[in-house]
Design brief:
Bound molecules: adenosine-5'-diphosphate, magnesium ion
Strand content: 15-25%
Number of strands: 15
Largest sheet: 8 strands, mixed
Shape: elongated
Number of helices: 16
Distance between the termini: 70 Å
Structural class: alpha+beta
Strand order of the largest sheet: 5-6-9-1-10-11-12-13
Radius of gyration: 29 Å
Length: 477
């Protein structure tokens, strides 16, 4: 039997406000436990939540970016459950009336195809605290610094059909919230995480299968692995004559498997009701327009512009617009050096390779966009060849100065004086009479050998085009 996978993601993006969603306590990461939890976050009696307007604006910004309806009136609700890191006994969330309604995003698949994924809704809510199981022997510590941190929960339609599509979707939302500057996207710190709902059904069947929900996955790699594992598990259960149970599962990255955590609660188990401490959230049309005016150029629009304006291939444009910082870096280089494709090749090749290897973000690059365009300018004006440029780049990366300085210091200036190149060719030909004879006897492949020898003799500095031309003349003559 052939099976089809169905996936829907619930993404939690921590909104980048300085204070919490219903209190003035700081949201800064990494403080001493319980130093950033005020009376409101602790759920003390007699205190009242006050909504953070910044969080609302960020939710609106997201809604506009995915072409969603912004609800003129939405309602905060209490989601009731008991857990030690939830002192109030309920989480303030939105249920029936979320602030952001139906929207969509386009994802890019590996084969170059695109697919539209529906976003069912996005709602504002507060985060819970953290239980620390490892730090105390036989006890659990509770850190409430995170309690009350604003989250935007982004719920997708069950539109994805493979783990790869789910990753592409998660990456797209990640890029969007970072472009919008509403979330720092830091997955290690938990600022961006997701629950993956996974089911399988026989190919051709219309009705969805029973799903399992895998909680709190905080890396793109883990999402892919967790889903693939879960799909295999469900198929095994069904093919063994069993039934998939609707439940919440945890992904264990060390073992590479998902395991059952608890039965899945239904929403009526949470006894949702409108929070009497908070007024309905009413958003005026002019507030929406004011937020719309702050929208930056979004990834899809930027990609189209890179193709139209710089003549880049779609692939390059997609890679370069993956993050706003990378796109800005590329654009600065392309503008300064005037050759967009050369700039794209260097940013995607040498620079990205070096950043990856060093585990650095583009914003931490030791070679600035100015410095890189300085290097490309020397390729364009033929001071150095593309190959030598890689050597110069490495020196720049290691802090040995800008391109001109490295070229001077290391004497890497390209040899364009044809008499100097000719002299080198003559010497090589004289030293290799056997190869010369073979070449002239029809062994064309030896041309490369001669190029190599001359390059070696000139420490790679002979201008490649001139060398080719002169060498051909000499060998054939
Ligand atoms: P809950 O809030 O209880 O988790 P929802 O109905 O809001 O449930 O769905 C949550 C997520 O599960 C959504 O992203 C939705 O697309 C996805 N989903 C719902 N049914 C299925 C299914 N059968 N298979 C895979 N994903 C599903
Ligand atoms: Mg859920």
């Amino acid at each position: 039997m052939e099976w089809e996978t169905v996936i829907g993601l619930e993404i939690h993006a921590q909104l980048a406000t300085r204070s919490k969603i219903f209190s003035g306590a700081s949201t800064a990461y990494g403080a001493e436990p319980n130093t950033q939890a005020c009376l409101v976050d602790l759920g003390m009696p007699g205190v009242l939540p006050v909504l953070n307007e910044g969080a609302v604006r960020m939710a609106i910004k997201f809604g506009l970016a995915i072409n969603a309806q912004i609800a003129p009136r939405s309602v905060f609700a209490r989601k009731n459950y008991f857990y030690p890191d939830l002192p109030k006994g309920y989480q303030i969330s939105q249920f029936e009336l979320p602030v952001v309604g139906h929207g969509q995003v386009t994802i890019d698949l590996e084969d170059g195809q695109r697919k539209v994924i529906g976003v069912t809704r996005a709602h504002l809510e507060e985060d819970a605290g953290k239980s620390l199981h490892e730090d105390f022997h036989g006890m659990t510590g509770i850190d409430l610094n995170r309690a009350g941190t604003p989250l935007l929960e982004i719920v997708s339609e069950p539109d994805m059909r493979s783990a790869k599509e789910a990753v592409a979707y998660m990456k797209k939302i990640h890029a969007l919230v970072r472009y919008l500057e509403i979330c720092d996207g830091n997955m290690q710190e938990g600022s961006f995480r997701c629950d993956a709902n996974v089911s399988v059904r026989p190919k051709g069947q219309h009705a969805f299968g029973t799903r399992a929900e895998i909680k709190n996955i905080n890396s793109f790699r883990f999402v892919e692995r967790a889903i693939n594992y879960e799909v295999e598990r469900q198929i095994d259960v069904l093919e063994g004559g069993g039934k998939v149970v609707q439940e919440t599962r945890l992904y264990d990255p060390d073992k590479g498997e998902t395991r059952s955590m608890r039965g899945k609660e239904d929403s009526h188990d949470y006894r949702y009701f409108p929070d009497p401490d908070l007024l309905p959230l009413e958003i005026a049309a002019d507030t929406i327009e004011a937020v719309r005016a702050t929208l930056p150029e979004l990834p899809d629009a930027k990609r189209s512009r890179f193709v139209d304006h710089y003549g880049l291939p779609e692939y390059d444009a997609t890679v370069l617009t993956a993050s706003r910082e990378l796109a800005d870096y590329f654009e600065a280089v392309a503008k300064a050096c005037g050759e967009a494709k050369l700039a794209a090749n260097w940013v995607m090749g040498e620079l990205s390779g070096a950043l990856n290897k060093a585990g650095l973000e583009i914003t931490e690059s030791p070679v600035s966009s100015d410095a890189l365009s300085g290097l490309l300018a020397r390729i364009i004006d033929k001071t150095i060849s593309g190959k030598i440029a890689k050597e110069v780049f490495e020196a720049m990366w290691n802090g040995e100065g800008d391109a001109d300085r490295v070229i001077e210091q290391k004497g890497l200036r390209q040899i364009t004086d044809s008499s100097a190149i000719e002299a080198a060719i003559d010497a090589v030909i004289a030293a290799n009479p056997t190869q010369l004879e073979q070449y002239r006897g029809g062994k064309d492949k030896l041309f490369g050998f001669f190029v190599g020898q001359v390059m070696k003799a000139t420490q790679g500095k002979a201008n490649p085009a001139q060398l080719n031309e002169l060498l051909k003349q000499k060998l054939d003559g």
